[in-house]
Amino acid sequence: MNATNYTILAYTAGLVALWGYAALLFLEGRRLSRRTMKSP
Amino acid sequence: MHFMQNSLFVRAYWLVTAATFVAAGSMIVFYAPNEVTMGIIQKIFYIHLPAAILTLFASLITFGASIAYITFRRSWLDDLGAAGARITVQFCAIVLITGMIWGRSAWGQWWTWSPRLTFTLLMFLLYLVYLVLRTSIESKQRRSIACAVYGIIAFLDVPLVYLSVKLMPDIHPSHIELARPMQITLLASAIPMLLMCAGLIATRYTLNSRARELETETVDEHAMVGAMPRLGGLS
Hints:
The structure holds 2 protein chains of 2 kinds.
Chain A: H1 3-38
Chain B: H1 8-31, H2 45-72, H3 75-106, H4 115-136, H5 140-154, H6 157-167, H7 180-234
């Protein structure tokens, strides 16, 4: 693998980790909202 | 209550964060020059260094919240400390992964046991243990106190990460000279990373607080249900 591919790999890993976690938090927020609405 | 999806401010915040990521990415690709000796691989620096600084920032939040929790015993401080620890692990993982990829290309090896790398790995593991500790203690009060004490102890590794490269011989560079366009690009790439870090900590904190409220409500409901037959029997 050449330097360009290593650089792309590093940025892909970093961005997936950041935005992937943000997406997980979004889903967790939705799940908690549903639980809140269900509770009397 | 809807958390991040319904608030106009929160939507705008994440939109701005995404826009700054696009702008910084464009600058990294089109504006920042390739370094003379390392070439294009040096561009990993624009994600690696901001992530490293923000790891220290997130761990500092956990440290501050832990001290404040032990002093004031407010549950929101425990939630904030937990949020800081979670984001510390997230950013530290990014530092380690991007650093390993850079090392593979620049030094020819994925990992070397140099002081800074070792202390960074230790930091990642220490905060990972913090998260495990939170799930392993049942009592809320005990969990909060244990995590606050641990949050203070774990922070002792943070100065070592910073000082190790200055005090001990290390393959990791301690100081880098940057050309003006590189400095500007570094600043431009630090902004989305900072927005992302602050946004993730705030969101994680909100979710922690809401989960705690729901947990308390559920316990109260169970207590009421348990008490009802006894009340019925009395009347």
